[in-house]
Amino acid sequence: MTRIRIDLNSLRGDGLTRARRRNADGELKQGNIVTAYEPEDGISMPAFVELAEEGSPYVLLRVNRAAAAVDITPDVYLALQAVLAGHATTNPAFFQSSGAANDAAGAWEAEDEGQHERIASLAARRMSA
Fold first, then answer.
1. Angle, helix 100-108 to helix 115-128, in steps of 10 degrees
2. Distance CA 122, CA 106 (A)
3. DSSP string, 79-103
4. Radius of gyration of the chain (CA)
5. Partners of 45 in the beta sheet?
6. What are the start-end ranges of the E strands in the chain?
7. Which residue in 64, 91, 100, 105 has its CB near the most CB atoms, within 10 A?
8. Could you tell me the CA-to-CA distances from 123 to 13, 42, 88, 105, 126 in Å, in that order?
9. pLDDT digits 0-9 by tens, 49-62
10. Is residue 43 within 8 Å of 6, Cβ to Cβ?
11. Nearest to 89 by CA among 50, 127, 49
12. pTM tops 0.85
């Protein structure tokens, strides 16, 4: 799914959010669903491409702000999935009751080289508790 960086303050009077086309990592076509992310707040949410005129440097998005969640980039998601996948086979209740994902959320906000190690460490500590 295409991701596009937005500024939550770019909300227009009609409820649409204006975003620069160059801030997307893929194709933007009118009618598509994309992931809008706000790096300053570390959140992402689904968005509907309302208007994407050919040649325009901007697109208009209908952003579902109510669905905002901690932004997880694809590489972080895959790393966390790999860490948790092994534990799910031995303790399926882990995902229902532990809150490991919430504990790991704090590590996702730091975007440096140790990011994946901190996620694995937080998940491992929760699993051993």
1. 160
2. 10
3. HHHHHHHHHHHH-TTHHHH--HHHH
4. 17
5. 36
6. 3-5, 17-20, 33-38, 43-51, 58-63, 69-70
7. 100
8. 43, 20, 12, 10, 5
9. 999 999 999 999 99
10. no
11. 127
12. no
